[in-house]
Amino acid sequence: MTDLTMTDSTQQPESDVEVVQAKDMQRARMLQSVNPPLVKHMYSADPSAHVFEGALYVYSSHDIETDAVFNDNGEHFAMRDYHVLSVPIVGEEAIDHGIALKVEDIPWVKQQLWAPDAAYRDGKYYLFFPAKDHSDIFRIGVAVSENPTGPFIANESPIEETFSIDPAVFEDQGEHYLYFGGIWGGQLQSWKNGSYTGADNYPKDDEPALTAKMARLNTDMSSLAEPVQDIIVLDEFGEPICAGDTERRYFEGPWVHKFNDKYYFSYSTGDTHKIVYAIGDSPYGPFNYKGVVLEPVLGWTTHHSIVQFQGKWYLFYHDSTLSEGQTHLRCVKMVELHHDENGHIKTIDVYK
Ligand code: FUB
What we know:
Bound molecules: beta-L-arabinofuranose
CATH class: Mainly Beta
Mean pLDDT: 93
CATH superfamily: Glycosyl hydrolase domain, family 43
Shape: globular
Helix content: under 10%
CATH topology: Tachylectin-2, Chain A
Number of helices: 1
CATH architecture: 5 Propeller
């Protein structure tokens, strides 16, 4: 791998923060050409890709500059609208279809439109999204359109019994399953028995980690058909991954895809900056941990989706190259993904 240490002696950083920023900026410049951003005229993040009627769409967050404080709660992710992208030709710049939904048009939302996803059912397209309500509690909402690119009309209230962030909807045999949840700023640690406690309750390092949540959706795509359940990820001994196992425990960004009749549950490890995956026999799991999908990218967050398009599998992800390393100003990208003969995903390191 290229040595990305800072070499420009004319720039003399004054503090530790400036040293880190200067290194990130130089690294970003060197990495600009690695998998180009799908769009460059705006910042984008958290790509959820889907093929609808043969066309490839990407539902992503729209990152913006902000005066908000930078903290572990992610207040610097102050996004206010969604744009839908489409990719007519892989390798070429994507089309931005404009604003699909914005904070001002969602009655229950105060701020922070984070990572969305989309689904299709019975002639309608549904945009699922997390946002803070007027009490600053993250909930999952849904909006509907007759067009995959919107505009979407939001329901009056969030989906009952949902909470936290990062919805991902997986369709299997006519059913749709909603996965969600994220710790730290995603508030998963503040929920107990379906109620928001407002307190940070994390398990001890040797206790099972907090899990992603899931439930089957009703055919109205706006309500849950069953109680919310935990998604259990098991280690090589068949035990749930523990909270102290930060290289493998669930942090945020769930995604499910199906390959050779197996269900693949993949997610971000957050503060260890990886996308990892586990395999199971049902959309409900349990899932057995298998390995790393994506090594860390430039920027703090990592977030992905996996989709098959025109016979090939692709990983959609984001990094901060377009902003030269600024954590909250990211850009979505795509790269081909391969399953080997055993169904294992070949680890991707986009900088090798
Ligand atoms: O974009 C805001 C948050 O950052 C997302 O919800 C997380 O998955 C992380 O990418």
